[in-house]
Amino acid sequence: MANALKPPNQLAVVASRPAARPTSFSDRIAAIAELGAGTVAAERCAIAFPAGGGGEIVCAPRGESRWDKVVNAVLAALNNRLSDAVAGYGLKRARGTPGSIESIERVALNAREIDAIVRVEAMDGRQIAASAFTDGVSAVRIAMVAPADRARGELKASLELMARAVFGEIALAAGRGSLEFWRTHGAERGRQAIDARRELVRERAVMNHLDKAVAAARRAQPIERFGRFGELVAAGAGFDQWVVAVADGGALTVAASSSGHKEFDLGETGSALGESFRRHIVIARWRDRDATAVNRANQFSEDRMFRGSYVCIPFEGGAIALASRDGRASAARAEAIVERLAPLAANWVMEREAARRNLLVRQLALRMFAAIDEERARIARDLHDDQAQLIAAAKIALDGRREAARSIFKQVEEELRRKTRELRPVTIADASLDEAIEGEFARLHRAGVTAKLVHSVHDGAAEKISRPVQQLCFQVVRETLSNVIRHARAKSVEITIDSTDAAARVSVTDDGCGIAANLAGEGIGLAGVRERLELMGGSLRVQSQAGRTTVVAEIPESA
């Protein structure tokens, strides 16, 4: 109803029906005005109706305009009268659909209101017939200047017939608009349905390919799994080079590659593959799409490794690097394939880690039994070389002077105590980790090495570490310091301890000559510590060069 009573933006006077057949909405309303005027011999008939979000007025007959000022004033008065009627709830609300002509309501001006607009004397034998009509949605106002001898009932009926005809045209126009909308909308929906069908066909093809890829991956032998994984992803997404890396003992290592090489630098910095795995993000370089990516001073080692475009995609337990020389590969397709194969790859990584740990357990058991046999042999040699000789000397001394015998037995006692201390396992006992480490500084001082203990977060970081993990940290420090004393020729050592809720981290840095970062260079003691840490989910890294060597151990609290 509010739309029906909205005042028109402009009450324009439009010429009456043209001679040609009405084609537009306004032309059809003008034809109704002309037919109504002709029916009652009216000199002027004006119809105000809603059009284009505002209002429009058409007048008939054509060319007769001397009564336009009068009819426009009457139409304005009808608009006010209609607004007052609605405001006073004198009209019922809308019923049925917009533009319905089955039930309309009428508002008319009385004789006093018309006389206020134009005096009867001024009409010169003519009369004003005017009414406003509403169907609850739209409003139509009609004003006529008719001969004075026309009956009021006849004029009232003519106005109502004209109003119903206008409402019919409004409904027809709305129907045409709705039909056009649905015709256009239906065509668009049809095109969308065709596009959706094509996309569905493509998706089914992709799903079939992925299903085949999963089936092929399941059939792969353990030694071929990651190679098959790389081949399936690269072939499915249009890449011609690939490298698959997985987490192995806390470090990212190459499991397979299209070239067959596995010696790639996947260190903490400089590798897009390593960065993708650590941050769990996709890293891409498209040389034909992003020219600036090539001019970044070879930010990653893959910029030199791959001459074309490449993308690195992470998955649970590893990451894959894919490269294309022609740039026509699809990273989105590769991500979809990796996502589908990721559960399989994660299982493979877990199986690989389980196998590695089983091997480590077997190796540790062999080393343990070897160490036991070696320790038995060493004890036997010591007993033969030292204690046995001292006991023989004591027997001889028993036949001689008492003082000499007492001195020899004291040596035997001291040697037995020293051997007992050596045989006892190294522990921190009741001391704190800091106290146990500082207790080892005496050995360093005797060797001419200064030592410093620091905490990277705050004092007392070691207090957050559980006792079993503190014991492991102490063993790492002790073995490392033993290597420094024996081999490093260092002048200073710095020990750093850090801890979080999840793990403890201890590092030992010296300024010595450096050691080779391998088991042979580390020595048996440090290698044994490494195996023990890996068995418990931790890791040991050695970073060494002339003038600086750092041993870093990370131990999870679950250990």
Please describe what this structure looks like.
By secondary structure, the protein is α+β, with helices and mostly antiparallel strands. 51% of the residues lie in helices and 19% in strands. The protein contains 15 helices and 16 strands. The protein has helices spanning 25-40, 68-87, 111-117, 120-123, 152-219, 225-237, 272-279, 291-294, 302-305, 331-398, 402-423, 433-439, 441-446, 467-488, 519-535; strands spanning 13-14, 44-51, 54-60, 105-108, 126-134, 139-147, 241-248, 251-257, 283-285, 309-315, 318-324, 450-455, 492-499, 503-510, 539-545, 548-556. Strands 1-3-2-6-5-4 form a six-stranded mixed β-sheet, with helices on both faces. Helix 1 packs antiparallel against helix 5 (152-219), helix 5 (152-219) runs antiparallel to helix 6 and helix 10 packs antiparallel against helix 11. The longest helix has 68 residues, at 152-219. It starts with 12 loop residues before the first strand and ends with a strand. Residues 1-19, 93-99, 291-295 and 517-521 have low confidence and may be disordered.
